[in-house]
Amino acid sequence: MIIDINFIGLIIASIMASAVPLILASCGELITERSGVLNLGVEGMMIIGAISGFALMTVTGSLIIAIFGAMLAGVLISTIFAFLTQTLITNHVATGLALTIFGIGISAMIGKNFVGIPGKEFPVLFEGLKDIIPLLGPILFGHSIVFYFAFALPFITSYFLKKTKIGLIVRAVGDSPESASNQGINVRLVRYACILYGGAMSGLAGAYLSMIYTPQWIENMTGGRGWIALALVVFSTWNPIKILIGAMIFGGLTIIQFHMQAIGVRIPVQFLTALPYIVTIIVLVVISRDSRKIRLSTPSSLGKSFHKDN
Amino acid sequence: MHKFLIRSFVSSLVLLFTLTVAAVAKDVKAAFVYIGPTGDHGWTYQHDVGRKAVEAAGFKTTYVEGVPESADAERVLRQLANSGHDVIFTTSFGYMNPTNKVAKEFPNVKFEHATGYKREHPNVSTYAARFYEGRTILGTIAGTMTKSNVIGYVASFPIPEVIRGINSFTLAAQKVNPNIKTKIVWAFTWYDPGKEAEAAKALIDQGADVIAQHTDSTAIVQMAEKAGVYAFGQASDMDKFAPKAVLTSVENNWGPYYVDRVKAVANGTWSQKDTWHGIGDGMVVISDLDSQMPADLRSKVKKLQADLASGKVHSFTGPIYDQKGNLMVAEGKTADDGMLAGMMTYVKGVEGDIPK
Question: Which CATH number is A5-297 given?
Answer without folding.
Answer: 1.10.3470
